[in-house]
Structure to design on (239 residues):
């Protein structure tokens, strides 16, 4: 399955001074903080809330969700790609992440996201979305191969079929509801058992933006495999 490394539930952040008793009310004659002091305190609090230290078991999806990051996990990844590296599924405890989108990330959003992996060489999207026509595994694979050829994504019928039979037995609606990804709210789904963050990162323009769509699931998984292993044909076990 396309499993996110080190998935798990992040420990809640402790509020500073939460173990201390509430301070006594200030004397009535005490001077109220100046406007400048209040602004400085507000800015310090804001700056602190924009930084996050990765803990064991964290995922970008969970970090973004728990901190209500605008743009979701993609915005976190784009703002921290130099720290994280090429694989958004691989983050390590101790890494310092910013939760505020950088100017570069916002510019990327404005220009439109480009598919990662082998699909990066694909032509600009035409706006047309491939509609899955087949109702069987053989047809889904052949339709996916047609899309992959257009986008320069490597893979053969045999390689795709072999991995599908291992991962899902050919059931496009199957979901893994017991492993660590499922516990983190991102279960592995579909023919090639893809989790949502991986599907979002490697989704290929022109296919349905639906994790359960057979063709979109195959193409996104093959795009991921091309980026990580050179081709889906090189995958012979869990990936």
């Amino acid at each position: 399955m396309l499993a996110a490394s080190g998935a798990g539930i992040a420990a809640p952040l402790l509020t500073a001074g939460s173990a201390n008793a509430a301070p006594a009310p200030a004397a009535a004659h005490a001077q109220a903080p100046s406007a400048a002091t209040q602004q400085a305190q507000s800015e310090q609090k804001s700056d602190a809330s924009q930084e996050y230290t990765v803990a064991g078991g964290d995922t970008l999806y969970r970090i973004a969700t728990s901190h209500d990051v605008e743009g979701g996990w993609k915005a976190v990844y784009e703002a921290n790609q130099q720290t994280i590296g090429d694989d958004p599924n691989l983050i390590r405890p101790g890494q310092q992440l910013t939760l505020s989108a950088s100017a570069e990330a916002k510019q990327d959003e404005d220009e439109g996201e480009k598919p990662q992996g082998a699909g990066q060489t694909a032509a600009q999207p035409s706006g047309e979305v491939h509609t899955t026509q087949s109702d069987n595994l053989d047809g889904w694979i052949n339709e996916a191969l047609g899309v992959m050829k257009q986008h320069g994504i490597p893979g053969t019928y045999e390689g795709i079929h072999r991995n599908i039979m291992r991962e899902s037995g050919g059931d496009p609606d199957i979901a893994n509801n017991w492993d660590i990804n499922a516990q983190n709210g991102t279960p592995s789904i579909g023919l090639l058992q893809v989790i949502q963050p991986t599907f979002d990162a490697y989704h290929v323009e022109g296919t349905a933006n639906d994790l359960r769509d057979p063709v979109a699931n195959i193409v996104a998984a093959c795009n991921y495999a091309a980026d990580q292993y050179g081709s889906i044909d090189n995958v012979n076990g869990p990936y």
In short: Strands lie at 51-53, 96-98. The longest strand covers residues 51-53. The chain is about 40% helix and 5% strand. Residues 3-33, 36-48, 102-126 have pLDDT under 50 and may be disordered.
